[in-house]
Each structure stands twice: as C-alpha cells, then as structure tokens.
Amino acid sequence: MSTGVQGARGRVEIGLVDLFDGSEVRDLAFMADFARTAESAGIDGIWLPEHIVFFDEYDSEYPYPDAPSATDPDSKAQHNKTVGGKAQVEVSEDQGLLDLTQVAVELCSATQRLRVGSSVLLLPLRNPRLFAREVATVSALTGGRFDLGVGVGWSAEEFAACESDFRTRGRRCEQLMHDLRAAWAGNDPEAPAVPQVPEPRMLVGGHSPAALRRAATVATGWYPWNLTISEFAEHLATVERQAAEAGRSRDELHVVAGFRATGTIAELPEIVGRYAEAGADGVNISLRMTPEGYAETMHQVGQTLGLRKGSEQR
Amino acid sequence: MEFGIASGFETSGEDLGSAIREAAEAAEAAGSASFWTLGDREIARGRGYDPTVCLHRVARATSGLRVVLGGDATCVRAAALRAKQLASLDWFAGGRLEVTADLADAPDLQDVPGPEDRDLAAERWAAMRSLWTDRRAAHDGSYVRFRGAIALPKPAGGRVPLTHVRVDIDAAVERIRPMIDRNGPPAGWVSWGDDDPGPAMEAIERALGLGEAGLRRTWCVPSDRHPRVRETAAASGVDELVAVFTTLPSAAEVEVTLR
Prior knowledge:
The complex is a heterodimer. Chain A is α/β, with parallel strands linked by helices.
C-alpha cells in the first residue's frame, strides 16, 4: 500500500517552508536536527524563502497577505498586518536569513533523501554567468536534491539596495531563465562553461499572466502561493494550455501549490488533498514552526497526512 | 612563513563533496594555515564548480584553518547580494573567512556591460562594510544606495572579514588607490603566478604611501613549484606561500606538497 497523499497525478510531494536566520537558537546543530526530523517524519522537502535585506518599513506592498481558509479553502482570510492600507511582509524585528544556496547544501549534507527548494529565489538579482555555476554546484553537492523556485520579488526597496532595476525585473527574470537553461545544457557559447550536471527543476513563483506564461513555456515547473483551490485549478488550466501550445507535455512540468497554513494540523488533509485532486504534484506548507515545537509539529504533519508507513511512525 | 593550499573545485570523476572533504581534512592535518579557492577570473576559464559554495564545504570539514576566497571579482556582483553570501559563509565557518578583492575588470563574467569607473569596487566594499557592521545599514554612493537596510546575519563577531587585495592586475596602483581611500589599507596583498611578487608589492606600497612596515604578503604558486620557491619567498618577505592545485588534490598530494 502506498503512503502519503495521492492526487490526480499520483503521489504528491509534501514540503515545509521554513527559514534559517543565523540566530543563536537556529545554529548548525539545529539545522541538522531540523532536516533529519523532517526526513524521519516523511516530509519530502524543506523550502527556503529568500530576502537579501529587510527594512523596518516598506512602501512596497506584500502581494500575498491572504491565505486560503483552513476550513474552507475556496475562500481566503487575511493574516498579514497592514500599514497605511498596505499589506506588510510577515517578519520579526531584526529578521535575518542565511544565504539560500549554502543552507541548501548544509541541510542536504545532514540527510539522505530530503529535497531542498527555494521559495522563492529572487532571480533578477543574479548574474547568470555566476549563478549558473552556483546552482550546478548546489546540484552536485546535494545529489540533485535542489529545486530552484524563482520569482521576481515585490520589494522595490530591496531591488534598489541590490543595484537592480525593479521596473524591468520580469523581463530580466525571463532572460535569466533562458540563460541558465542554456548554460546548463552547454548551449551558450558566449558564457563561461559550467560543470555539466543534471538540470535542476526550475519552478516559477506567482500567478500573474507573465508568471504563468514563463512557467508554461520556459521553466520546468510552477509554484503559486496562497491560491484558493478554484484559483489554483483555473490558473493551472492556463499553464497546461500554454504548455501544450508550446509543444510541451504536462509531464515536463512539476507543479507545487504553496500556502500559509492558518488552521490546525488536523485540518491539513482537506486543503492538501484538494490541491492534490486539482492536479498539484507537490504541496508546500508554511507552518511558522518554533524551535521548541517543530519536531512535534513535523511528526504530527507526517502522521496526519500519512507520510510514513505505520511501522515507520514515531 | 606559513604554508597554505589553494584548489580549483574540479574532480577526476569522484563525488564532489567527498573530494572536497578529503582535500580539506588533509590540508588541516598537514598543518596548512589556510585553504584558498581560485579566483573568479581563473574559474571562468574552466569548468570548475562555484568557489563560494565549495568553500562552505571546506569550512564545514575543518575547524581551524583559515578559509579564503582567492579572487572575488568585485565588478560583477552587487554589494548587498555579495555581503549576504560572505556573511553567511563566515557564519558557517565560525569566523574563519577571509576574502581577496580582485579589482580588475572581468568581461567574461559580466552579464551586462558594467560601469568603467574604478570607484565602483571601492564603493561596493564600503557598502558591504556598512551591511556587515551597522544594525541599520546605509550607503549613498554613485552606484549603490540604501538606507535602513537590515542585513542579518552579520559575519561572526560583527567584524569585517579580513580582506586581501590582488596585485597581479593591470594598473594596480590606480585600481587599488580608490579602495584604500574609501576603506583603509587591506590586511594584505596577494599575487598569483610564477614571478617573485616581492618587488611589485613593495612598489605598490611605496606608490600608495603605506609606510615601511608593509602589509601581509601571500604568494600563490603552482603546487609543483611550491617546494622550489620557498627560499625566494622567504627572502621577499612573503608571509604565506600557497600551493595551487587546479583540481582537488588527494590527501597524499597535499601531504607531499606541504612536507
């Protein structure tokens, strides 16, 4: 008997979104324990958010303040605070984040099977002539367990601090996706040669028309955030149609639905199962776990979603 | 005089992580003071893996030796992004990271034509210093501008990682002067190549008015020449002689070279 969540396209990969900030409490030992606990609970992947810098105040509006309701995932409830009518990103004061690719390598070095993904990496900030090599290196050091979720970001303040034009970030993101795939395939004679490794999954975050088109025609996956089930199904149909028009099969795309969990763990099977039935290949859950409670939470998630066989349960 | 090793991150087919661990552990066991990556310019010419990510694995496989980026091409990376990567690497290394600034142009590594202004590198280093040390970082320059930036984690101890500067570049004095004007003298000079670097380092120090004492000198030479240039290096006031391997060395190769 198979374990885990079964969906319209077979077994669904379950990921948890969490962060490693370089604080004393989330030290190296914590990182290893966190990753091993996830693996032992049957979690398929840990997904890492990215910001290069934070600010106390933003003029930019956070675009995903509404999460699907735990009890009715066809409706949404706002959970982020607003300032001056603008939704704010959900972070603590003096928030930090360690460099994403180094964390990915660290977590995979502590585990055997666990995948690590970016949720999502700010691709327009990268220099493709360096970043193609960086991702190939992560892929080699993780045994191909790294998934590259990419996005265009929402904070104009952060882009300015990173010397990157915010207005043209979408166009730049798409060009970078082409550049990376060409570099990994060895098809870019202008760029420095990079190590030849199996190409990692590249999933486009977001659900704007441009994001859907990029996911369908350039990337190898789609990773929307905080959509209701009906929104997810509607946008997935668009991605599938555009992929077919581009001569690509649905099996070339890995689709992960991500959401900020607002209810109890007991309520997870409903929303996860509905994403799965709607065609998700993976479901990523942000639980905002504490250092004290993460192990218990992970095992509850594993048990509730049936991620391990009975004999393997804790 | 201390001895160190530098290596490109290429293997002869074995698992990359295992090969890095073997070389790093061997270096530490053989008494190497440091483990250096190749510079960005050298890496761009080959198929090697990324130096920053690989140096993370070196740091995690060792506990005492210094881990050093051998030639960070400042003109091809935004300051805030690089500050984050280096602060994180230092965090993973427990405060053992050192960085070598390469102030030369790097056309092979630029995805778009960069500004020609030689002050760009100096400005980016100044911006990184603020991000590494200030609770709310600020920089208002020609290319880099931010205010109230929260950049965490900081490098271990809230310090600026020790910074070397490569001198084996064209117009070295003209390129290094703005860096020193904005950021003060570096911790030391680094030269990659066959030639005794002492005279060039002395000339640069004189031109920049850095006084008699001089800065730390590091000479990176091909590993097969390492045993033969030790006397020359000592006579030139070299503080650290680094044996350069183009691919990850075996434990035996490290041991023989540093013997």
